[in-house]
Amino acid sequence: MKPGISIPSRDEKQGFGSGAISPGVMLIATKEGDFGALHCNVGYTRYNYSDDDADTVTRDDIWHASAATEINMSDNIRAVANIGIETNEEHSEDTHPVFLIGGMIRGVSDNLDLDLGLKCGLNDAETDTALLAGVSARF
User: What per-residue string of b and e applies to 12-38 under the rule 16 or more CB within 10 Å gives b?
Assistant: First the structure.
């Protein structure tokens, strides 16, 4: 279980968050093997809005579910794929965004990973494509 909290840091009217503290939780199950790993995630976030206008057009309760796999290509390179769905934030929309992510992760050291991926929307509610890049540091 991975608890989370979103704390507002700027003006929500400028598009920087909801203007209020929003809690969430993610349940993560992982099975590792010799050739890679499988991951299943289910999560919930409760968005609290300080702006009444945002509260009337945006859902407060957001659910997320996804399944992912990673395959060890070498000692420090993994191929990854992730498919998931999330509650559409807009009250007026009944179609929830569905996505597929594919990419590669390179372990630079025991405590540092670099990754590059492509996110594709599988329906009209999700963004068509997005290039993703990231860094993961472990302490």
Answer: eeeeebbbbebebeeeeeeeeeeeeee
Among candidate residues 40, 27, 125, 128, the one with its CA nearest the CA of residue 82: 40
Q: For the chain, what is the domain count?
A: 1
Task: Give the residue, 62 or 51, on which the prediction is more confident.
Answer: 62
Task: Quote the CA–CA distance of 54 and 132 in Å, as a whole number.
Answer: 28
The SS3 of residue 104 is strand
Decide if 128 contacts 120 (C-beta within 8 A): yes
Q: Which residue has the higher pLDDT, 52 or 80?
A: 80
Which residues face 9 on adjacent strands? none
pTM (2 d.p.): 0.81
Q: Which of 6-15, 100-109, 126-135 has the lowest mean pLDDT?
A: 6-15
Domain with 121, as residue range(s), is 2-137
